[in-house]
Amino acid sequence: MEAVYTHGIWMAETIQQRTRSQETFWLVVTHMGDPKAAFLLVFPFTYFISKRAGVAVLWLAAISEWLNLVFKWILFGERPFWWIGESRLFVNKQPNVHQFSSTCETGPGSPSGHAMVTAAVWWVVVSSVGSSLYSRTHSVVLSAAPYLLYVVIVVAVGISRIFILAHFPHQVIAGSITGFILGVVLSRRVPEGRPLLFFISLSTGLLLSALMLHAGLQRLGIELSWSIALAKKWCSHAEWIRMDTAPFSSLARDCGALLGWGLAQYWKPGGWSLPWAPRALSLAISSMGLYHVNRLPLPVRPQGLFYSLFFVKFVLVPQIVMVLVPGLVHFFTHKKKKD
């Protein structure tokens, strides 16, 4: 693996030097590829266009990120920003690379979570758009356009992760392929209309199985906090280390979102039926609501409190998008029509 890692570092250096003027673009792309963006941006945008596609995005985002966490605990995987210093292979010739505010993630690096979740979630979006275009136009060329966009999005997110030194190329490729497979398979098995007990069991099962895996690996003498220590050691700015990039934050987000989905379906089975204008209004209000929910500061100590509140924050996400905001919009627009 040493040769693979070394070539990855030189590739990152080449990408940084040749596309340095596009730094802002790559930083925006890597933020858009963040698994968090799948819940806070892609899910509401898709849901108000197609309910089934929207809940499929939520489903794929949660399951693919959970699996990514499990893979990382099993496969480990270095990250470029700490491997440069830890390997001690660049003492005589340091690579001319730079870190960024998004670089210092604390989990293991293999496979790339950004690439994996992006490939899974956006497959739902483009396949839905492609099918819709084909049913309306019967044009193979036109219906193929979204799939070309899919490739561009996945490749761009992968390059952005290499650019900021968060991942090696092979980790991005592994994440993209795995995410694509998950998108194809799981988009056909979306648990719509299931009872609340199903989602409670699913959320609890994913949480407990991950905790049991974590405890089992530790019992075998595998220290799973190794990546956090390396991230803190080699990150060029201590303030770039964030709790929401820790592995347990991903676990809390996924389990919270799935429970929130179940609660949303329980409160309002089938969701609200809205015309296009109220849907657009609901999307705008939901986006503002999720923006402020995401910005809510959480206490980082004790850690258990942080993860509990982080869990609650993402339980709220489906409630806001699927129940609260469209319900309020329906109430006021329906009342206005009556008047």
TrEMBL record:
Q: What is its EC number?
A: 3.1.3.9
Q: Which residues form a coiled coil?
A: none
Looking at the record, the residues that make up the Phosphatidic acid phosphatase type 2/haloperoxidase domain are 53-187
The biological process GO terms on file are: gluconeogenesis; glucose 6-phosphate metabolic process
The answer, when asked if Transmembrane helix is one of the entry's keywords, is: yes
Give this protein's Gene Ontology molecular function annotations.
glucose-6-phosphatase activity
Top-rank taxon, per record: Eukaryota
Annotated pathway, please? Carbohydrate biosynthesis; gluconeogenesis
Cellular component aspect of the GO annotation: endoplasmic reticulum membrane
* Any Pfam family hit: PAP2
Q: Where does substrate bind?
A: R79, R161
Q: Where is the active site?
A: H114 (proton donor), H167 (nucleophile)
Q: Where in the cell is it found?
A: Endoplasmic reticulum membrane
Membrane-crossing residues?
56-76, 115-135, 147-166, 172-190, 197-217, 305-329
Chaperone listed as a keyword: no
Keywords associated with the record: Endoplasmic reticulum, Gluconeogenesis, Hydrolase, Membrane, Transmembrane, Transmembrane helix
Membrane topology classification: Multi-pass membrane protein
SMART domains, sorted: acidPPc
The family line of this record is: Belongs to the glucose-6-phosphatase family.
Its protein name is Glucose-6-phosphatase
Q: Which organism is it from?
A: Monopterus albus (Swamp eel)
The taxonomy runs: Eukaryota, Metazoa, Chordata, Craniata, Vertebrata
